[in-house]
Amino acid sequence: MEKIGIALGAGGARGLAHILMLETLDELGLKPAYVSGTSVGAIAGVLYCSGMTGKELRESFSELIVSERNRVTNIFNFKWLDFIVPQFEGAGLLKTENFIKFLFKLIAARTFEELDIPLFVVTSNFWTREEVVFKSGELISVIQASISLPGIFAPVLINNEVLIDGGAVNPVPFDILPNDCDLTIAIDVIGHRTAGPDLMPSLTEAVFNTFQIMEKSITRQKLRVVCPDIYIEPYISDVRVLEFHKAEHVFRQTQPAKDRLKRELEEWLNRVDAAT
Fold this sequence. Notes:
Layout: E1 4-8, H1 17-27, E2 34-38, H2 40-49, H3 54-64, H4 75-83, E3 85-86, E4 92-95, H5 97-103, E5 119-125, E6 131-134, H6 140-146, E7 151-153, E8 156-158, E9 161-165, E10 183-187, H7 203-225, E11 230-232, H8 247-275
Parallel strand pairs: 1-2, 1-10, 2-5, 4-7, 10-11
Antiparallel strand pairs: 3-4, 5-6, 5-9, 8-9
């Protein structure tokens, strides 16, 4: 049996695109042997590796996120106000504990070992500036650390290490997938931004976009050294990090990339069949 590894990259709300990529695997009857994830990719990864299908992920988010078409405020919008709680002490402006608690109500797994598919989650050590990858042990704090955007969300202390968003060191973690993969897939959802009418960014825009500039630079440098077998970068424009209410907008922009992934996987399957 051929082994597939898929890396789900960082990108905030643009990471909703991962749902369509995972749907593609399901539609072709493909189950990855390994999944790696950074930040929002870790969130998509833990849900998928726990047994949720891509379709179930899409249905869940579609039900929970405010509709762009009618702007109806539903239960998720109400809960979202509680998820990200301001804090006035510490190294972050916001807390993510409530969001993490909600996330883990969707799945039964509490450790990596309980997942259906092996998962590798990237975090960053704040003080040593090094990548810290988790593949075993307790899940909740690791996912929380992987999404802790510096200065915005509070860091997480694990094993006496201060950990922050994995995007600071490895935004698209295809290089940490095991070497026995027959096919590696990388999904880059860093996205694209265009200038507003006055050209100058706001404070929050400057913080978020500067981090994404760094992520893009890291990814480009990695690709000069090693490339995954399939590299997919959906063209997602003008969706900010926390704009999860733009889910349908992200899905529409991601559809061409989903179609491309499906074509490339079908070509790969044909080559595998021809070789057997």
